[in-house]
């Protein structure tokens, strides 16, 4: 574990050096000049931009054992004009959570991703960070009959369907196994957002509305979302089985494109 932390600290320092070297001084309000011995910004200049001491910033670049806060990382990211991917990498290497990362994205599916649904013959849907279904295709509506094929008063949510809609207990084969697994996958998926009010509100609603969810949630089981066989007892088609595949868009990793390819 210590070797992993040391490696991340070293990577963080080298990453900061590269970012500093590529930054043109004049773009940050500093004179370029021909007398500069340093390519890009000086350490002192980065420290000035971020509002930290030059010594402390130097220690960061040297990979020393210093405790850097999320606030300081945010100032560094803003000062160096990092892209979203670079900012995420900075926080990851520092072992810190970026609150702005989770707060900056609304759960809206891009039009291009929604358009992909129409090209997929199998049931498919786009799921948001709290497992709201943001869009789905005709095949998904036909599979989740009585739910997605109905007019929605609010954004449908997979966990609300599983635990609060009686139709789910008939549609999902081995409901208790699927429900327990969903709860464990949801906890793992939201592990960095457990303090967010919207998530807490959803958990409270599910806890009050379902004894099973309340019990499963208290067990603190954690399971990464995986593919595999999913069986349904459809009211018109009888028993149907699918292979579930989940993909994440690169630019909006809080979203999931879920596809159910037919097995029989």
UniProtKB/TrEMBL annotation:
InterPro entries for this protein:
Cro/C1-type_HTH (IPR001387), Lambda_DNA-bd_dom_sf (IPR010982), MLTR_LBD (IPR041413)
Secretion signal, residue range per the UniProt entry: none
The HTH cro/C1-type domain, residue ranges: 15-87
Q: Which SMART domains match?
A: HTH_XRE (SM00530)
Q: What is this protein called?
A: Helix-turn-helix transcriptional regulator
State the species of origin: Viridibacterium curvum
